[in-house]
């Protein structure tokens, strides 16, 4: 086996370090940790919204108030409870609202922006995640919501 001389060793090591550095920089840098990007930094005690004073509460299965901001959950649609098309839709909407309340109160969460900040009603559009997963997926899996398709469906 050939012995590598120190000048050669230093040159090879420097070249490898430079290549590694360039690979990291050109790829956008190292992936930040959860702590570094503040994942799941929100936590609150949610209740059901009643009356005109709303700060941190659940309106229905896809709308909440959080710290005084009205938020429409952007990645789902749930049955209506304020103007349902039928009694079955209202019952399912009430279940979605109660389940969302439980999910929000289970721990910290994040609010992720989408391609537009607000809907036509002035509600902030956000996806609610915990540990990088959308809480909406639970509602969809349980049959209490559908993935947002750009329009509201008839639940009756």
Largest sheet: 7 strands, mixed
Helix content: 25-40%
The computed structural class is alpha+beta
Low-confidence spans: 29-36
Beta-strand residue percentage: 15-25%
User: Mean pLDDT score, rounded?
Assistant: 84
Shape summary: elongated
Q: Give me the Rg, rounded.
A: 24 Å
Number of strands: 9
Distance between the termini: 79 Å
**SSE string, helices as H and strands as E:** HHEEEEEHEEEHE
Number of helices: 4
Report on this model:
- The chain has 156 residues and is an alpha+beta fold.
- It is 32% helix and 24% strand.
- The protein is built from four helices and nine strands, in the order ααβββββαβββαβ.
- The protein has helices spanning 6-26, 34-37, 87-105, 136-141; strands at residues 47-48, 57-60, 63-66, 69-73, 76-77, 110-118, 124-130, 133-134, 146-147.
- Strands 1, 2, 3, 4, 6, 7 and 8 form a seven-stranded mixed β-sheet that branches. It has a two-stranded antiparallel ribbon with strand order 5-9.
- Strand 7 (124-130) and strand 8 form a beta hairpin.
- The radius of gyration is 24 Å and the shape is elongated.
Quick synopsis:
By secondary structure, the protein is an alpha+beta fold. The chain contains four helices and nine strands; from the N terminus they run ααβββββαβββαβ. Residues 29-36 have low confidence and may be disordered.
């Amino acid at each position: 086996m050939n012995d590598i001389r120190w000048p050669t060793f230093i040159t090879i090591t420097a070249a490898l370090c430079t290549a590694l550095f360039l690979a990291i920089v050109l790829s956008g840098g190292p992936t930040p940790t959860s702590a570094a990007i503040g994942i799941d930094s929100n936590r609150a005690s949610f209740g059901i919204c009643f009356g005109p004073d709303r700060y941190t509460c659940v309106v229905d299965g896809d709308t909440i108030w959080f710290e005084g901001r009205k938020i429409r959950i952007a990645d789902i649609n749930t049955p209506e409870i304020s103007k349902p098309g039928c009694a079955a839709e209202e019952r399912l909407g009430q279940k979605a609202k109660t389940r969302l309340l439980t999910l929000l109160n289970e721990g910290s969460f994040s609010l992720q922006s989408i391609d537009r900040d607000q809907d036509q009603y002035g509600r902030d559009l956000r996806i609610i995640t915990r540990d990088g997963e959308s809480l909406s997926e639970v509602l969809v899996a349980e049959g209490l919501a559908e993935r947002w398709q750009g329009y509201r469906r008839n639940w009756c």
